[in-house]
Amino acid sequence: MLTPKKRAPRSTTPRVYPNRIRELNKERGWSYKELAEKVGVHFKTIQSLATGDAELTWSWMQRLARVFGVKPTEIIEKPAFAHLRTVIVEGRVRAGDWGDSHVFDPQEARTITIPNNPELNRLDLYAREVEGDSMNKLYPHGSIVILSRMTQRPGEIMVGKRYHVRRTRGDLREDTIKTLVRSANGEYWLQPESDSPEFAAFRLEGEEGTTVELRGRVRYAITIE
What we know:
Layout: H1 21-27, H2 32-39, H3 43-51, H4 58-68, E1 84-93, E2 110-115, E3 125-130, E4 144-149, E5 162-169, E6 172-182, E7 188-191, E8 202-203, E9 211-222
Parallel strand pairs: 1-3
Antiparallel strand pairs: 1-2, 3-4, 4-9, 5-6, 5-9, 6-7, 7-8
Helix pairs in contact: 2-3
């Protein structure tokens, strides 16, 4: 009579991962599916990269680093200064500059380092360079603002906070930073903070022929004295 084989006890040893993809993803509260959407691949590809079943090439490290907001080498090893976080400066903002794109060439993208605030770990951060004088009382020309994307918390808007605002007219776009205010009759307005009379506030709901979108909320700023 054959006796059934006993199942081998399940290992209690934690799995060792050959890179930091799982760790970085967990810090941000994302699933592999969410990460895959940000990278633009199937989630099984992310799983294979994380477990080492697929080769983690330099090209993959660069793509993942852009999404995580870290340096490519941090995909496989912790930075020497774990209390710091790297953010990509992906473009510029300038009131009155209408064009088809205000994003820098990815090959020429710069990064900046900011304090690693645990409260912002789950947020997708990006940075923009401020040009012009529409917010010069707060952010002079050449300042860098670090923002969290509104796609993560689209309904969370707060009066008095500063936002990356995109206005669109046909094929043209304007990217700028403005302060959200509320009028006595309850309307939301986006207001410049400038010592120049050239810039005026506009309504959040937009106007005929122009749409207004809040893209990100300012979390940090690096200004030039």
